[in-house]
């Protein structure tokens, strides 16, 4: 129930923020249509239309506001940054909302006041900043007066057991105070129940080692019988990179440990961008791809496309497509060139590979040889952004389990390694480090940044052979 209240409060704040952002847009229009019109400045648009002409833009603002603010941690439990940090996040969020509006205006081909959209940025940032300060002020006042503090019982057997006390002291806005802290091995069930009653405990946090599980099982049952909420710290399992989440499978509660991005609206957005992006790019490059196919066939023997089994999501094999940039017998000659490998680890890379054809050399430098992989993205075997898929035999040669974690997400056409100079990275450990950094820090915004950085990396041929 306590976490549910936090979620309900978050939804309430999100609705408020949607209204605040929409109000900022209306104020921007009002400022442009009244005050700036009154000044009669010639460099502003002479006619900006009615407010009803702009009403269609309130819908995407209402939809995207909670998503963008969630991305910038506006609603994170215990998030208590400085005023400068809050203001910075408000401006980042406002600029992102502004860019969405500009894209929609371009899509709808509307001739609306550009000044209105520009004014929206500072007005929106200011209103969001004031809203955030107001909420923090209310929380601080309530917690200082102890009106809303809930009694918490901390049950821990850890030597270094100051974490919870420190966090709750630093973040009174969370609304809890530790009424008692006990070691489960030093108190029997009767003592435990008496503490629940004496201090009117509303929440019990168990932060224990695995050796104390049997001891606290009866205490957990006592809390269940009395309807007291229990939180069990997942530090019980001493995981380093996984995040824990409780869910239900076939009506049974389960604790999920996941080191890959969680299912969310962002993953849905990634799928949509992949499919729409791949389809659009295939249409745009259909004629260049036809010309490239003809040039490959005319310049050397063999098919225009090269197909090879690669390791996909969790190592599942799939046929990856590329424009053929090597001679048709390249695979047969790989063993004889193995001694010239310039990449450490199981991967084979060679800058001056004699198997590369003249047109293949140009295709690699321009990255045009990767275009057929858009088909792999369209059918769902790959993503636009993700770790580069390795041939099956190179994947099997990986000796470290940690390195195989790069297979826990769908492979992609471009990635951090791609924009970091590709062939300038000759250490497989560094390659994997970049892949794991991408997985651990993944967000939809991260994908967009990588896609944008890929364009100059390709055009400037950074690290290309």
Model description:
The structure is a single chain. The chain is of the alpha/beta class and 465 residues long. It has 3 domains: 2-144, no CATH class; 150-238, 3-Layer(aba) Sandwich (Rossmann fold), CATH 3.40.50.10700; 265-459, no CATH class. It has 15 helices and 10 strands. The protein has helices spanning 2-39, 58-71, 83-108, 114-144, 163-170, 189-198, 213-226, 265-284, 286-299, 358-366, 373-379, 392-396, 416-419, 428-440, 444-459, and strands at residues 150-156, 176-182, 203-207, 229-232, 243-249, 252-258, 305-311, 317-323, 383-385, 412-414. The chain has a 4-stranded parallel β-sheet with strand order 2-1-3-4, with helices on both faces. Strand 5 (243-249) and strand 6 form a beta hairpin. The protein is flat, with a radius of gyration of 29 Å. The model is unreliable at 1-5 (pLDDT under 50).
Q: Which terms would index this structure?
A:
single chain; 465 residues; alpha/beta; Rossmann fold; 3 domains; 4-stranded parallel β-sheet; two-stranded antiparallel ribbon; disordered N terminus
What's the helix and strand layout?
Blueprint (H helix, E strand, L loop, with lengths): L1 H38 L18 H14 L11 H26 L5 H31 L5 E7 L6 H8 L5 E7 L6 H10 L4 E5 L5 H14 L2 E4 L10 E7 L2 E7 L6 H20 L1 H14 L5 E7 L5 E7 L34 H9 L6 H7 L3 E3 L6 H5 L15 E3 L1 H4 L8 H13 L3 H16 L6
Parallel strand pairs: 1-2, 1-3, 3-4, 9-10
Antiparallel strand pairs: 5-6, 7-8
Helix pairs in contact: 1-2, 1-4, 2-3, 3-4, 8-11
């Amino acid at each position: 129930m306590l976490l549910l209240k936090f979620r309900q409060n978050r939804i309430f704040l999100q609705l408020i923020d949607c209204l605040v952002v929409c109000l900022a847009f209306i104020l921007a229009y009002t400022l442009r249509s009244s005050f700036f019109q009154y000044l009669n400045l010639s460099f502003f648009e002479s006619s900006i239309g009615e407010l009803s002409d702009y009403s269609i833009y309130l819908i995407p603002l209402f939809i995207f506001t909670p998503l963008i603010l969630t991305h910038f941690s506006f609603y994170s439990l215990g998030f208590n940054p400085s005023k400068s940090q809050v203001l910075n996040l408000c401006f980042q969020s406002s600029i992102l909302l502004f860019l969405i509006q500009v894209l929609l205006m371009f899509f709808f081909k509307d001739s609306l006041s550009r000044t209105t959209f520009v004014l929206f940025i500072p007005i929106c940032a200011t209103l969001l900043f004031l809203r955030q300060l107001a909420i923090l002020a209310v929380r601080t006042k309530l917690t200082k007066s102890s009106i809303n503090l809930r009694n918490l019982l901390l049950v821990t057997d850890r030597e270094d057991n100051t974490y919870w006390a420190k966090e709750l002291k630093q973040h009174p806005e969370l609304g809890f105070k530790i009424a008692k802290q006990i070691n489960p091995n030093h108190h029997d069930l009767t003592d435990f129940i008496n503490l629940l009653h004496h201090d009117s405990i509303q929440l019990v946090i168990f932060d224990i080692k695995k050796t104390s599980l049997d001891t606290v099982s009866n205490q957990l049952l006592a809390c269940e019988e009395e309807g007291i909420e229990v939180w069990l710290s997942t530090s019980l399992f001493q995981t380093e990179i996984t995040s824990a989440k409780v869910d239900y499978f076939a009506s049974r509660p389960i604790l999920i440990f996941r080191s890959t991005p969680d299912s969310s609206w962002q993953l849905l957005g990634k799928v949509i961008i992949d499919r729409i992006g791949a389809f659009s790019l295939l249409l745009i490059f259909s004629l260049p791809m036809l010309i490239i196919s003809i040039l490959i066939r005319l310049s050397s023997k063999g098919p225009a496309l090269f197909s090879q089994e690669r390791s996909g999501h969790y190592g599942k094999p799939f046929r990856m497509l590329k424009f053929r940039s090597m001679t048709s017998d390249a695979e047969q000659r790989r063993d004889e060139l193995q001694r010239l490998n310039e990449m450490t680890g199981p991967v084979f890379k060679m800058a001056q590979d004699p198997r590369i054809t003249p047109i293949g050399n140009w295709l690699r430098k321009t990255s045009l040889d990767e275009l057929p992989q858009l088909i792999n993205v369209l059918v769902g075997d790959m993503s636009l952004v993700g770790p580069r898929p390795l041939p099956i035999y190179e994947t099997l040669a990986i000796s470290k389990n940690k390195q195989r974690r790069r297979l826990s997400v769908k492979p992609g056409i471009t990635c951090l390694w791609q924009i970091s100079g590709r062939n300038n990275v000759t250490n497989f450990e560094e390659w994997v480090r970049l892949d794991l950094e991408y997985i651990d820090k993944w967000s939809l915004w991260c994908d967009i940044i990588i896609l944008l950085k890929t364009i100059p990396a390709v055009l400037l041929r950074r690290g290309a052979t």
